[in-house]
């Protein structure tokens, strides 16, 4: 197989991993729905470009960590099967903790980006709020 074909194939594997995560993980479905809602709100409120980039950064960070969390869960399941083990619990809980940290960051960024434009829209009825 040629180098470029291997490269394209590796993209296919990566997409399959993402599809698996979205299909099987309820939290991932919630993250995706929240991300779409936030992007629509950002477009509707015409938030500045640098804030859009910040929002995109947080969205991709959370989705990436959730995907990695799924990988950890599956590795643990593969290793211990149906057995309960304190290390399995720690591995899953710490991976979930990492996702939680990124979600907290996303909420902080979301609040700092959206509070003023939303308040402006609620108090003036106009959506063209733009920070310097
Ligand atoms: N093999 C295990 N040994 C000990 N504790 C476990 C084990 N598997 C899971 N746990 C504990 O139960 C929690 C929930 O795990 P569970 O397997 O139900 O769901 P999950 O792995 O988070 O996700 P999924 O439902 O996608 O498999 C984990 O965060 C961990 O605290």
TrEMBL record:
The biological processes this protein is annotated with in GO are: phospholipid biosynthetic process
Q: Which cofactor does it need?
A: Mg(2+)
User: Which Pfam families has this protein been placed in?
Assistant: DAGK_prokar
CDD domains (UniProt xref)? UDPK_IM_like (cd14265)
Where does this chain mainly localize?
membrane
Q: Which residues bind substrate?
A: 6, 66
Annotated a divalent metal cation binding lies at 73
Question: Which residues does UniProt mark as catalytic?
Answer: 66
Q: What EC identifiers does the entry list?
A: 2.7.1.66
Q: Which GO terms describe its cellular component?
A: plasma membrane
How, per the record, is the cofactor bound? Mn(2+), Zn(2+), Cd(2+) and Co(2+) support activity to lesser extents.
Q: Which UniProt keywords apply?
A: ATP-binding, Cell membrane, Kinase, Lipid biosynthesis, Lipid metabolism, Magnesium, Membrane, Metal-binding, Nucleotide-binding, Phospholipid biosynthesis, Phospholipid metabolism, Transferase, Transmembrane, Transmembrane helix
Where in the cell?
Answer: Cell membrane
* Entry binding sites for ATP: 6, 13, 73, 92-93
* Membrane topology qualifier: Multi-pass membrane protein
Q: Which InterPro entries match?
A: DAGK, DAGK_sf, UDPK
Q: Which GO terms describe its molecular function?
A: ATP binding; di-trans, poly-cis-undecaprenol kinase activity; metal ion binding
Family in the record: Belongs to the bacterial diacylglycerol kinase family.
The protein's name in its UniProt record: Undecaprenol kinase
Source organism: Aneurinibacillus soli
Name of encoding gene: dgkA
């Amino acid at each position: 197989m040629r180098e470029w074909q291997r490269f394209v194939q590796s993209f296919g594997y990566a997409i399959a991993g993402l599809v698996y995560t979205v299909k099987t993980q309820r939290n991932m479905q919630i993250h995706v729905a929240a991300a779409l809602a936030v992007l629509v709100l950002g477009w509707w409120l015409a938030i500045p470009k640098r804030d859009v980039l910040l929002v995109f950064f947080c969205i991709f960070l959370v989705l990436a960590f959730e995907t990695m969390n799924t990988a950890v869960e599956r590795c643990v399941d593969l290793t211990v099967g149906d057995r309960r083990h304190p290390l399995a619990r720690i591995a899953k809980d710490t991976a979930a903790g990492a996702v939680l940290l990124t979600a907290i960051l996303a909420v902080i960024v979301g609040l700092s980006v959206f509070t003023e434009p939303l308040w402006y829209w609620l108090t003036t009825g106009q959506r063209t709020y733009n920070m310097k």
